[in-house]
Design goal:
The protein has 451 residues and is of the alpha+beta class. The protein contains 14 helices and 17 strands. Strand 3 and strand 4 form a beta hairpin. The structure holds zinc ion (2 copies). The site of one zinc ion has 7 residues, from loops.
Length: 451
Amino acid sequence: MIRPWDNSLFSGEYGMTWKFIVLDEAHTYTGATGIEVAMLLKRLKARLETNNTIQYILTSATLGTSERDNGEVIDFADTLCSVDNFKNENIIRSERVKLYPPENVCDFPKNMYSELYSCIESYNSNEILYEKVCEFYPQLKIGDDIGETVFDLVSHDSRYYRIKEILTDNAVSVFDIMRKMNMKADEMCDFISLASKGMKNGVMLFDARYHYFLRTLEGAYLTIAPEKKLFIEPRKTYLDSKVFKFSVCRSCGEIYLTGYTAKGEDGLNYFSSECSVDPLGPKKSYMEYYLLDAGKFGIDKDMPSETIDENIISNTYTLCGKCGAIWRRFSAGPSVKKCSCGSRYCTSIIKAADKKYLKLNEFSNSVTVKKCLSCDSSANAGNVLRDFYMGQSAAASVIGTALYGEIPSSKNVIHEEYAAVSCELYSASRTSRPKNRQCGICAYILPFVIS
Ligand SMILES: [Zn+2]
Ligand SMILES: [Zn+2]
């Protein structure tokens, strides 16, 4: 609003014509974003040189669930748009139109879907498609519109009503529908792809939408005995083994188990990825780091050889991979308390305990490893270990990288493909990716690449 170049939008000829302000996905304007947008709208209103009363239109699929929420929806809209005139009757809710099977409902052969769908996707002329439709359903009155033809055809299909019935009350997986309908994966995909193209008088047969859910890494986990198994999602046990969280040395890649030790009711110490001490309580508990591979120090023998550093010997522990019990491997004391799980679960690990290896960060009240026990690499600032936690921005960058990888290398090709993809986007094809063609989403980032 302050850029001279855009001035004409808000004042002069165009500034007089403002009538509507539409906010899509209105439910997202909450919290700090909501306040910012509300302030922006206020400034916009003050800036516009129009005598028209601006009408605000807010759209959302997740704002209020029933008429009982109308009051809150109105409050939300009034606050966001700084007005006081939203009313009950201004709230328009969508209603699903229920389709009832006609009397002459049929059982079409399953190959009909793939044949018709591939006919539409291969950009055959409408005549070829209509010929195909006639093959399967000669009684159908065919109009000019592909969407209406598909709608009329599939709405005569008994299979369509059975699938709708399965989906009436609950979310059902595609595999369950396939099983109940006795359909193969390809047949199901073709059915949904074709039925999704059916539309008549604004009513769609299927409202197919595709969502990708991406989850970022929250850590890496493993079992240590009797076998090593890796997990990238948090878990506590696998079969009869305990699962531990780990980090690796940035330099040599050696694995370090990370976690906390706490005394159990039986007097034994137990090592676990989670801290059992209240973080706000008076007692502090610091993260501990154990080098998993003690073998390279000659620790795997019963008695340590004399060449081994005493520091290493005194910080060697035995960890039970089943119950998580942990005790000093070479204790000077008379009897070391051990668990009864058996030696097949036991592994020797070396604790990074000496000041030489650890750094206390007073500000965050945490401990990090500044020098690797295995390779002696050091990190003066920060941690020599890398954990496997990724922020949410990582997910976006993964998608970005994947999409970038889909872009053809030549600039000319991009222009051609872009034109083709744009046509597709604006054509009737709205639901799925055409075979052997550019991924639809790429079209959104291609303009940036071209520019
Ligand atoms: Zn290292
Ligand atoms: Zn045990």
